[in-house]
């Protein structure tokens, strides 16, 4: 026991840092998605199934384009935070840190690609 | 001072040795649907990106998403969206200090499963 350092004792047991902010972000995005989630399901459901021209015309309209962009941004950010907590819980050590970097990079890339696609169709 | 007492600390029961309950199962499902939706978002973005690229690129992914397997993925994703939204709404209620009783939580859990299934079926029929 006397070989246990203070750092070793504290490591992995969690500290304040970004926890409160993370939790509040989950609360806010959860509330936003109560509105955006169902709206997007309906929007995307109406968009899927048309011809190429119909799909382009549909997502060029303001409401489908805005709902899609907002839901992709808020929704993917929300599930990214969700996934990061799961990684913190179940993937220990350096593998966990690298997984968190990969998940974060992948999620933001997905948001960027989605917004780019809708912007290109709409503009 | 590394005065660690490892003898008589309270331990939180681990998933594998804990009897499955409505509260724990409905909570685990919230996390699973959240992670699954990150995967489902890939198909949505892929489809949009293909539509923004060319008719040829759009044709492939559109045919896949409209096949029976694509329908299955989309139905699962729709259910996951509704379940996750309702599950997170329950978290918001809890965090504001409401519905914290076990019985209320269990009733909400059944409500989440039921309402998500109902809403997903309505969307599947209507859209």
Compact description:
The complex is a heterodimer of chains A (123) and B (127). Chain A has 123 residues and is an all-alpha fold.
Structure notes:
The complex is a heterodimer of chains A (123) and B (127). With 123 residues, chain A is mainly α. Chain A has a single domain, classed as 3 helical TM bundles of succinate and fumarate reductases (Up-down Bundle), CATH 1.20.1300. In chain A, 83% of the residues lie in helices and 0% in strands. Chain A is built from five helices and no strands. In chain A, α3 (52-60) packs across α5 and α4 (62-90) runs antiparallel to α5 (93-122). Chain A is elongated. The N and C termini of chain A lie far apart (65 Å). In chain A, 23% of the residues are buried. The mean pLDDT of chain A is 91. Chain B is mainly alpha-helical and 127 residues long. Chain B is built from four helices and no strands. In chain B, α1 (22-53) packs parallel to α4 (102-126) and α2 (55-66) crosses α3. Chain B is elongated and about 65 Å long. The model of chain B has no long low-confidence stretch (mean pLDDT 90). The A-B interface holds A 1-2, 4-6, 8-9, 23, 26-27, 30-31, 33-34, 37-38, 40-42, 44-46, 48-49, 52, 55-56, 59, 68, 72, 75-76, 78-80, 82-83, 85-86, 103, 107, 110, 113-114, 116-118, 120-121 and B 1-2, 4, 31, 34-35, 37-38, 41-42, 44-45, 47-49, 51-52, 55, 58-59, 62, 65-66, 74, 78, 81-82, 84-85, 88-89, 91-92, 95, 119, 123, 126-127.
